[in-house]
Amino acid sequence: MTQLKIKTNVVYQHLVNSDKKIVIEQGGTRSGKTYNIILWIIFEYCTRNNDKVITICRKSFPSLRATVLRDFISILQANSLYSEKYHNKSNSEYYLFGNLVEFISLDQPQKIRGRKRDLLFINEGNELFFEDWQQLIFRTQERIVLDFNPSDEYHWIYDKVIPREDCDFFKTTYLDNPFVEDSIIKEIERLRDTDEQYWQIYGLGERAASRSTIFKYTEVNIIPQEAELVAYGMDFGYTNDPTTFVSVYTQGLNLYVKEHLYKTQMTTQDINLFLKAEELLGKPIYADNAEPRLISELRKMGHNIAPSIKGRDSINAGIDLLKRYKINVLSSSTNAISEFRNYKWKEDKAGMLINTPEDKHNHIIDSCRYATYSILSSPNFGRYTIS
Length: 387
Fold this sequence. Notes:
Elements: H1 10-17, E1 22-27, H2 33-48, E2 53-58, H3 61-78, E3 87-88, E4 93-96, E5 99-105, H4 109-112, E6 117-122, H5 130-137, E7 140-148, H6 156-161, E8 167-172, H7 182-194, H8 196-203, E9 217-220, E10 228-235, E11 243-251, E12 254-263, H9 268-277, E13 285-287, H10 292-300, E14 305-307, H11 314-323, E15 326-330, H12 334-342, E16 345-347, E17 353-357, H13 363-376
Parallel strand pairs: 1-7, 1-8, 2-5, 2-6, 6-7, 9-15, 10-13, 12-15, 13-14
Antiparallel strand pairs: 3-4, 4-5, 10-11, 11-12, 16-17
C-alpha cells in the first residue's frame, strides 16, 4: 500500500513500532490521535491480515457515527477504497480486504458481550466505566488501542491499565500534528493566557485539576466505630448505568461513604439476592423515587426501602447538604472515589461554570444524596425505621 498517499504523524508510528498488546494514546486537541489510529487500522492492520474482526467502539453511537465512522469512510473514499457493496449500513459494518470492521457502542450490550474480536479500538476511552473495559477486553484476542483527552484528573485508565506490563502509553499534542492549520494553532495557544486548566488538558495534553469539580474528599482506610449510620442509599440502573448501593455514616462534621455495589444488568431479583447476601434485610434504605415499581417490589420481598425525599431543586439541595460535611471515602470504594473525583459543574458556551452538575459520574453520588437528604435534612435524624 506504499503507493497510496496518506499523511501520518507520530501516533501512526507508535502503533507500527509497538509490540505490546495494549496501546494507550493520550492527547490534547488536534493531536491527530483518532485519525491516525484509523489510518493504521486501514493501511497497516487490514492490509497485513485477512479474515479478522476489528471492533471500533465508543460510549454512544451518535458520537461514534459523527466522528470515527465518518473519518473511516472519508479516508476510504479519499483513497478510492470505498464501495457500497462492502458497506452494511444497517449493521454499521464494513468489509475491508477480507476483514470485518464493525462499529459498536455501549448502548448495544448484545454486541459488547457478543462474539470475539481480534482488534479493538476504543475511542474516547475515558467515557467508559471500568466494567465496560473489562467486558470488551475479555473478548479481544490480539490488540487493543484506546485514545482519550485527559479531561479527568483521576481515572481507571491511569490506575488499572497504563501500569500493566503489556501496555504502551503515549502522549501527544497539536505540536505532534504537522497538518494542523495555523489559525487553529493560534486558537489553541490562546488558551495559555485565557484558561490555564484548558491549556493543560487540550493544549499540553496533560492531566489537570478541574476548577469545575464539585466535591473535595479524603480517602480513609476505616470508618470509626463511633460514627453513626445515617442510612443506606440506592440508585437503580440497568443497561449502561450501574445499580449502586452505599452506606453513609456521620461523626460530628465528618461524613463517611462506603460503596457496597456498583454493577450493571441488575434485575429486581438480583438486587434482592444481593441485599440478603449482605445481611441488609430490614436495614433503612432510601432509593430513587423515580422507580416506584422497583421499590414496591423490593418492599414485598421484605426490604425496608423507601423512596428518597425529592423537593424543589433536590439535586443541588442534596449537593449542598453533602458539602456541609468533610467527606471521607473508604479507599476500597474505587467507584465512589472515581465519582467524587470527577463529578463536575456544567459550563456554558463561554466556559463559565453554571449551577447545574453534569449528568455523569453521579450514580454513587445520587445514592449518597438519597441517604443523606432523606435523613440529615429531617429533625428526626437518628430514627432509622422507615417501614
